[in-house]
Structure formats: C-alpha cells, structure tokens
Amino acid sequence: MKTMEDTGTMFGQIDPPQRLLMGPGPVNVHPRVLRAMTADMLGQFDPEMTGYMNQTMALYRQVFMTENRWTFLVDGTARAGIEAALVSLVEPGARLLILRAGRFGLLLSEIAQRIGAEIRTIDIPWGEVAPPEQIEAAIIEHRPQVFATIHGDTSTTMAQPLDGVGAICRRHGVLSYVDATATLGGMAVATDAWGVDVVTGGLQKCMGGPPGSAPITISDRAAAHIMARRHVEAGIRGADAQDGSRTRIGSNYFDLAMIMEYWSEKRLNHHTEATSMLYAAREAARIMVEEGLEARFARHRAASEAMAAGLRAMGLTLYGQDAYRMANVTGVFIPDGVDGERARTRMREEFEIEIGTAFGPLAGRIWRIGAMGYNAMKHKVLITLGALEAVLAAEGHALPRGAGVDAARASYEAMPGAAPGAAS
Amino acid sequence: MKTMEDTGTMFGQIDPPQRLLMGPGPVNVHPRVLRAMTADMLGQFDPEMTGYMNQTMALYRQVFMTENRWTFLVDGTARAGIEAALVSLVEPGARLLILRAGRFGLLLSEIAQRIGAEIRTIDIPWGEVAPPEQIEAAIIEHRPQVFATIHGDTSTTMAQPLDGVGAICRRHGVLSYVDATATLGGMAVATDAWGVDVVTGGLQKCMGGPPGSAPITISDRAAAHIMARRHVEAGIRGADAQDGSRTRIGSNYFDLAMIMEYWSEKRLNHHTEATSMLYAAREAARIMVEEGLEARFARHRAASEAMAAGLRAMGLTLYGQDAYRMANVTGVFIPDGVDGERARTRMREEFEIEIGTAFGPLAGRIWRIGAMGYNAMKHKVLITLGALEAVLAAEGHALPRGAGVDAARASYEAMPGAAPGAAS
Hints:
Low-confidence stretches of chain A: 1-7, 420-424
Order of helices and strands of chain A: EHHEHEHEHEEEHEHEEHHHHEHEEHH
Oligomer: homodimer
Number of domains of chain A: 2
Number of helices of chain A: 14
CATH topology of the largest domain in chain A: Aspartate Aminotransferase, domain 2
C-alpha cells in the first residue's frame, strides 16, 4: 500500500471571508440554520429521525401553501428537485410543453431531452412573461402530458404570473410543474391557490439556507400518476410488492414513487436521508413559519423596492418590466463605459460584497443584485448601494453621490409599518 | 392569500438524543465535521470557493489513494454517486457486467435497468466473494463495456478483494466501476493499485461525516469515455461549444462530463455546489489525512477484531467468512429464542445505542454491528458489547456475564502498539 506521507497535502480549517452575498444566490445562511446543522446524526429509521422527517413535511406544507400530503425533500441541489419532478412525471415519448423565458426555461428542455420527452415550447423574449391565454392556446395546440414553467427565472429577474394556470391545465387534463427555486420563501408560492401539481424549490435563495436540499410538493393526482410508474427495488421487495402499469421511471435516485414510500409510513428504504441538510431545511422552514409568510414576503418586497429606488436614484436603468419583477433579485444595466466584471471584483475585494453577473444574451449587459432570505434587510440594501456607488465612482462613472442610499432609506420610510430589520 | 396563522404548526429546535450509532451507517459524525458546516456561504465562483473545491479534490485524491485528476464530489447521497457513475459510463444498450453478492449488488442492476443497459451478472451466494478468475471468465464470456462491483456490501458485511481486478478489466478493454461507500475511510480503497477506473463513496460511514455528499474518482481513460458523451447546456453554451461523438448521458444532474467541467478551470455552471456538504467532506478528508491512512485502517481493524472477539466470547456466532470480513461492520446471528427487533429496541431505549437490522434473506437472522469512522474506538466497542450482553440477558438468553467486554479488552491489549482511542 502506498503511504500517503509521501504525497500528503494538508490545508487549514474552513475559514471563509465574511462576505455579504447580494447576488442571485447562494446567499448568506441564517445563523440558526447553520447551528441546526451541528446536531449529530440519528439512525435513519429511528423514531426521532422519522419524527423529524414528518415535521419537515408539515413545515413545508406551510412553505408551499398547500395541503398536499406528499411534501418532502429531494436530497440534492435545486436542480435535483427539477430532474426528479420531470423524470417522474414525464414518460419517455410523452409530450411536454415548456414555457421558456430565460436560462432556467432552457434548463427544463435540457433535462427533458435526456428523458426522451417530445418537447414543445412557448418561447418568449427574455425579460417578458406569458399571459394565461397564451399558455392555454399552446396547451390546446400541443396537447401535452405535462406543462412546465419557472416561477422566478433569476437569469431575467422576472416572475411568471401563475394565477389560473393550474385551472387551465386541469381543464385540459394536463399535469403541471413549477420550478420555484428562486422564489420559495420570498414570494408567495401558492401551490393550492394556483392549482398546480408539482412544485420544487431550493434552500439557498429566499429560504436562507445552504444549497443541497430540494423541497418538493406533489398533488394527489400527480402522485397517482407517479405511483402508476413505481417498481420496487429487487433488494428490498417483499412478497406483496406491486408494480405499476405505466412506464418505469428512468432514474432510481430521482424515482419519486420510491422516495414517497421512503417518506411514507411504509419507510421503504431508498437512499440514506441527508440528515444535516434535513436539519437545515427544517430550521429554515421553522424560521419562515415563525416570521409569518405575509410578513416575510413583505420584507422581501420592501428590500426589493428600496434596492430599485436606490439604483434608479444613482441614475442606473433597471432591466425588465416593473410589473413582473421578482421581489428578491433586481437586474440593472451596467452603465456605458464601465467594465461589469472589474466593478464586481472591486465590490468583492474592497467591500466583501458579491453582486451577480448574468448569462447568455444578458452577459456583460446587466448585473443581478439580490436581497434574499437573511439578506432581505434594510441595512444590507443600504450597504450594498453605498458600496456600488463608491465602486462606480472609482471606475470613473459620474453619478450623484449619496443619492442611492438616501432614496433607499426614503423608500423604507414610505412603507407604512414596514419592519426596519428582519423578522417582525 | 391564505394566512398561515390558521394552520400554522410549529415544532421545537432540533435536539436529537445523544445516541451511539453502532449500525452499518449513518454513524456519529466527527465533531470537527459538524463544526465545519457552521461556516457561512461563499459565491459559487468566488476564488475562495473554487479554492476550497480544488483543495477538496486534492484531499480526496489521498482518500481514494489515486493520482486521478478527476476526483471531486457528486451532490447527493452515496446512491447519487453510484447513479452518476453508471449513467455516465454505461451507454443505453451497452453491456454491463455486475458482480452481485448482496443487496447493493442488486441495487447496481436496479439502477442499470433504468439506464437501458444490457445486464449480465455474476451471482454469488450472500456472504461469499468472487475470486479474480471467476471475474475474468465472466468478462471473457460476456464482453461487457463496463464491469461493476461493490467493495464492501454492508448487507452481507463481506469485502470483495479487488487486487488485480483493474488489470483484468484493462486487459479485456473493459471499464471498471467500484462502489466503496461502506469502506472508504475504513479500509484501503486503493484506486490506483487496483487499477480500477471509477470509484464512488459516501461520507456517512467510515469517513465520519453526514450523508449527502458522494466523493468520486475517475481515471483518465474513463474521463475520456465520459467526455465523448458530453453536450453543453443550451443556456450556457458559447460559440466554441463542442459536443462529443457518443450517446448523450441520460441525466443532466448526473452528467459527469458537465460536472467535471464545473470542477475544472473552465468552471462551466451546472448545479450550485452544496457548500455546507463540501465543507463537511473537506473536513472529513482533512481528519483522515492528518490521522494517516494506515493508522486509520489499523484503527478500524482493531475495533472490528475486538468486536468480533467480544461477540464470540458471548457465545454468539459470526456471519460470513473471516478472511473477507469488512473491517468496520460485523454480522452476527441473532441467538435462537431472541426477538432481534425487540433486542434492538431495548438497546436503543435503555442504552441509547443503535445496532443494525438486516435486509432480504438475512432479515431477522443477523444483526449488523458497525464500528465506523468516529465510532471505531475502543470505548465504544466495549460499551456496545456490555450493553448487548445486558439486553440479551434481559431477554432471557443465558450467556457468560462479562466475557464479551473482557475478550474485547484482551483483543486490544494483544495488538502491539494499537492506539487505545481514536487518532494516533
């Protein structure tokens, strides 16, 4: 055996700079969530562990504003939740209609291609949203098995309105899927009111947690569809195992039928639940429920409005349509003559503040400035605006000094009863 | 909007019982790993974050005893690493030869079926291992694209010897995959010495970390095979994007070609790295490298031998062949007349100690008692044996009182220079 002393490389303790993350996520994690992760493990079928799992289900029903029994966690990042939803809902060869208005809409097709879905799309320009009539017309034209969309696409900072979309899908016998990674915990993700079937999220944006766990909720009718695709693993199947009639799900890890049985009273073994991430997800939801959903959404709106007011007062131009702006990340055009990446580096190196770059057609054209979760707070908005002003001035861009911070303060003061800090 | 005050359900802080987890995993996490997870987030392309990613790669090269450039983490539990390896290596319709000697061998076929692989198997009785000649004969007979096996299958507590297996595969132009989830950090997982192509693991067993991150290492020839299946995502592809010539990988999340580009200097965006789990994985590896691999493997062997000696001195019969026993989990027959689950419950309720149940043909016949990672320590072995003795006596099973603990102590004392506690 090779001894490692020869090649041994050692590094110091984890000690990241204390940086304010005002990009599109991940953002700073609520200290209570970080502390929750220091709790030690439990056996995965211990009553205490399954109790925590059940509590997590109850908490995420509140987060997703739903009564769906099947509300739990997929063990992976937000993208894992998206793939689990699509691979479990959409059968190979079945038609999937995707509303694409940004990078994450493209991601849905990317994932669906691998599944072998027959893909139809509603493609709208980045920065715009689709009215319900356009969605219904496309459903009538394409007759898909599943309709899929992004709620808030951080690549464009726009939020697709979803009121009435579930009803349209049900009227036409179509299952619906919504990716709410970037909005969950910051804007109303009104699963039951929208009437949509499957919604997934992440922790690392408005939930104020770390990336690595994907909350999901599934309606009863979607669960019935998924359970019709179930096949019990050979290694654990009993004599009473019953397989479903539909095409088997093309992934074991993302087989939501099996994951539901793991989270059900049956506790059929599947993966080993990511215990620390479960603790984090549970604590993030506890903080949200304690704060109250409406207060939390108002806090995000207040931060977003103040950020927008401040950026405009600095003479900058916001990207996209005001009416459909996400309440937690703001796109702003990089002023002419300013090198966007140089300014971002200066923000990081001089102020220890991160703001976001952009993808695809918006790369080099806009910055994306977030105020999400634990960072949707007055002082963090003010500090970010003040730093951005100084950086733009240092980069030779003329702008009225002090105007951004003052406008953001005024925006907060104009909000009746707005909480100045975090939770009410 | 529905107000949550009506239905609000609240639960208390995470506060698990301080339980000693002496089953087949997850086990208690090293306190340093838990503390590492309290560090706050970094932007995913911050130099500090990519620096930690590079350090993690260097550390896991030591853990996997390899010089493979491609050594990194898959964001999900150990099962996610298995699926990423198989879906990225095995093309639909290609032949996969699986050595099956327990539940996790069955899991490999389960996953491979979903991929559409043409599966061939070497099936050997649970509790046995396959000699290299048997593996070579099956490779010659079936001519697979990939050969896959489990190193230590916790369902049987046996470790498959892998010396020479990589050379056999290379001689016949076959790629090789090893699942080392249950042995990584506890027994030598000698990637380069074995000459195998892809090895995956988990944190929650001998690495002394929480479940939720799957370390992986990939040889250059396997990486070339996987990169020939790459296709760049539409949302981030530049004008210079080049797609490979082989069948596209059937999963986006588990597309190792894309994950490699994320971990490479290119830093092509894929998922958002699970930062807290990266911190945990990095700290677990740091502890292992500090302890020294040989010392760590000796610590696991010492705990395992003492556990075996203690169980035998109590009059119990071990399961499986001594020569091929894993050095971190021991199977022991439940004595006649004892209800295995009642005894396990009593262990948990009276002593706060968990020992493991069993799957499939071994369910109700054996317990599986682990001494893994932070729990492969003398005092934990002694405490577990003492508790098991008391529980068996309480359940009416006659046995020599004190014999188990004394035999385990003697086993430790007989080991020249054996460290009494944890790290040397």
